[in-house]
C-alpha cells in the first residue's frame, strides 16, 4: 500500500468524520468508528491488525469512561424525578433573592450541568425562568440565557460529562484535577455570559410566546415535597469531594515512607476517590432519595434506572469511538509530523511558546469540528484526541494539560448554530425564531467559549513563565 504523509492521513480522517455527519447525516458513532477504520488502514502497521486495533482501542476507552457516563445518567435522572434538582434551584433563589433571579438560574445551571446533561438541565430550569418572568414582567430572554451561561460551560469543561471526561483521559489528566481546573475556568466564563445575557435581553427585547406543541410547562413542586438541600446536594458533592480528596492526598503523600500514616491515608483515598466507585456511591444515594421521596417499589425504581441507562448507551458508544479514532491518529505518526511544524528554524523561540500554540490549535480544531458537525461532545473528543496524538508527553507543554483541555472545551462552544441540537432546544423551548436564536444563543455561547479559551491561555502563559 502506498505510504501517505501523516498530515494527509489526518486530513482524510477529519474529512471522513465531517462528511459522514454533515453531508450524509450518519450517526456520530458510525462516523467516528468509520473514520478510525479508514485512518488505521492508511497508517503504518501489519495489515492483519489494522481493524482489530480499532476494536482494541474502542474497548480501552469504553473501559475508562463507560461506567462513569452510565452512572452520571442515572444520577441525573434520579435527581430530577426526586425533586433534588428542584430543591437546589429554589435554594439559590432563596439565597440570592428574586431580584437576582438570573444569577440564581446561572448558578443552578452551573451546578446541575456537572452531573446532568445540558438539554436536561435546560428543560428543568426553563419553567422556573418563565414563572420568574410572570412575576417580574421583564427579562424573559435574560433568564433563559442565564441558564445557558452556567450550564453550557460546566457541560463542556467539567467531568463527568463525556466531553471533558474523555479529554482528560486522552491527555492523561487526573479526573480530580480536571474537575477543579474545569470548574475554575467555567465560573468566570459563566459570569461573563451572565452579563452578556442582560445586554442581549435589552437589545432584543423578546417576550414569551406560545410554544406551539412543545413540552407543557410544569408547575414547581411544593416545598414540603422536596428533599432537604443537604441531601439534594449529596449526589453532586460527594463524588467531587472524594475524587478531589484523592488528588490532594496523593500530592501531599508523594515521597512518604511506606507504612507511614500518610501512605495509609493515600491508600484509603485511592479506593474511595476512584471515580468509578465515587460515582457508584453517588448513584446509590440518588436512587435511595428517589425511592424514598416517591415511595417507589424496587421494580419501578429498576425501570427508571434501565431507561436512564438506555439513553446513556449511545453516549458511551460515541465517546469510545472517538477514543479509537484518536488512537488511530497516533498510529499514523501524526504527532511527530505536527511537532516538525513547530520546530524553529533557529534558536531563541522559547519552548513554552510551542505549548501555547498547541493550546490555540486545540481550541481552533474544536471550533472547526463544532461548526462542521454541531456536537460539542464530539468536537471535544476529536480535538483532544488529535492534540494528544501531536505531543509525545504533556510534560513538555510548560503548563498543566488540564488548561489545554479547558481551551479545547471552550473552542467546542464557539459557533453553535442550526446543526447543533442545543440550538434547537433553546430556540423551540424559549419560543424564538431561527434568526433570534442566532442573535441570542449563538452569540452567548460564542462569547462564553472564547472567554474559556482566553482564560485558559492566560493561565497557561503564566504557568509557562513561572
Biggest sheet character: none
State Rg: 22 Å
Q: Helical segment tally? A: 19
Count of discrete domains: 1
Question: Can you give the mean pLDDT?
Answer: 84
Which structural class do you get from the secondary structure elements? Answer: mainly alpha
The unreliable regions are 212-220, 342-350
Order of helices and strands: HHHHHHHHHHHHHHHHHHH
Helicity, in percent?
over 70%
Oligomer: single chain
Hey, roughly how much beta strand do the residues contain? under 5%
Distance between the termini: 48 Å
What report would you give on this structure?
- The protein is an all-alpha fold and 466 residues long.
- The chain has one domain (6-465).
- Helix content is 76%, strand content 0%.
- The protein has 19 helices and no strands.
- The protein has helices at 6-23, 28-42, 52-82, 84-96, 101-112, 118-136, 140-157, 162-171, 175-204, 229-253, 261-272, 275-294, 298-331, 334-341, 351-373, 376-390, 401-411, 421-430, 434-465.
- Helix 4 (84-96) runs antiparallel to helix 5.
- The radius of gyration is 22 Å and the shape is globular.
- It starts with 5 loop residues before the first helix and ends with a helix.
Amino acid at each position: 500500500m502506498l505510504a501517505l504523509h501523516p498530515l494527509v492521513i489526518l486530513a482524510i480522517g477529519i474529512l471522513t468524520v465531517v462528511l459522514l455527519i454533515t453531508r450524509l447525516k450518519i450517526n456520530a458513532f458510525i462516523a467516528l468508528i468509520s473514520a478510525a477504520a479508514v485512518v488505521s488502514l492508511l497508517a503504518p502497521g501489519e495489515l492483519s491488525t489494522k481493524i482489530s486495533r480499532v476494536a482494541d482501542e474502542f474497548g480501552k476507552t469504553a473501559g475508562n469512561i463507560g461506567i462513569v457516563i452510565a452512572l452520571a445518567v442515572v444520577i441525573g435522572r434520579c435527581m430530577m424525578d426526586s425533586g433534588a434538582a428542584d430543591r437546589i434551584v429554589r435554594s439559590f433563589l432563596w439565597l440570592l433573592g428574586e431580584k437576582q433571579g438570573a444569577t440564581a438560574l446561572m448558578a443552578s445551571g452551573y451546578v446541575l450541568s456537572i452531573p446532568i446533561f445540558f438539554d436536561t438541565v435546560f428543560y428543568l430550569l426553563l419553567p422556573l425562568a418563565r414563572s420568574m418572568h410572570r412575576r417580574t414582567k421583564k427579562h424573559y430572554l435574560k433568564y433563559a440565557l442565564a441558564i445557558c451561561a452556567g450550564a453550557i460551560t460546566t457541560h463542556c469543561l467539567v467531568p463527568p460529562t463525556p466531553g471533558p471526561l474523555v479529554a482528560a483521559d486522552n491527555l492523561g489528566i487526573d479526573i480530580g484535577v480536571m474537575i477543579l481546573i474545569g470548574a475554575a475556568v467555567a465560573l468566570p466564563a459563566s459570569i461573563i455570559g451572565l452579563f452578556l445575557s442582560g445586554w442581549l435581553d435589552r437589545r432584543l427585547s423578546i417576550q414569551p410566546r406560545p410554544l406551539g406543541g412543545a413540552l407543557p410547562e410544569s408547575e414547581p413542586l411544593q416545598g414540603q415535597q422536596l428533599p432537604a438541600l443537604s441531601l439534594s446536594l449529596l449526589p453532586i458533592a460527594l463524588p467531587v469531594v472524594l475524587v478531589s480528596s484523592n488528588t490532594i492526598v496523593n500530592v501531599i503523600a508523594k515521597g512518604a515512607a511506606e507504612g507511614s500514616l500518610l501512605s495509609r491515608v493515600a491508600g484509603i483515598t485511592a479506593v474511595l476517590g476512584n471515580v468509578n466507585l465515587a460515582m457508584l456511591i453517588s448513584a446509590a444515594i440518588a436512587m435511595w432519595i428517589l425511592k424514598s421521596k416517591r415511595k417507589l417499589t424496587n421494580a419501578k425504581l429498576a425501570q427508571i434506572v434501565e431507561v436512564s441507562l438506555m439513553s446513556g448507551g449511545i453516549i458511551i458508544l460515541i465517546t469510545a469511538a472517538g477514543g479509537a479514532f484518536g488512537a488511530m491518529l497516533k498510529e499514523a505518526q501524526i504527532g511527530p509530523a505536527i511537532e516538525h511544524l513547530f520546530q524553529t528554524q533557529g534558536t531563541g523561540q522559547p519552548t513554552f511558546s510551542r505549548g501555547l500554540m498547541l493550546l490555540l490549535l486545540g481550541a481552533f480544531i474544536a471550533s472547526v469540528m463544532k461548526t462542521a458537525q454541531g456536537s460539542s461532545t464530539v468536537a471535544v473528543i476529536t480535538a483532544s484526541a488529535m492534540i494528544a496524538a501531536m505531543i509525545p508527553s504533556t510534560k513538555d507543554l510548560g503548563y498543566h494539560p488540564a488548561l489545554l483541555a479547558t481551551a479545547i472545551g471552550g473552542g467546542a462552544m464557539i459557533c453553535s448554530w442550526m446543526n447543533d441540537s442545543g440550538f434547537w432546544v433553546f430556540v423551540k423551548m424559549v419560543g424564538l425564531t431561527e434568526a433570534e436564536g442566532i442573535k441570542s444563543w449563538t452569540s452567548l455561547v460564542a462569547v462564553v467559549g472564547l472567554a474559556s479559551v482566553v482564560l485558559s491561555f492566560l493561565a497557561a502563559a503564566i504557568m509557562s513563565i513561572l
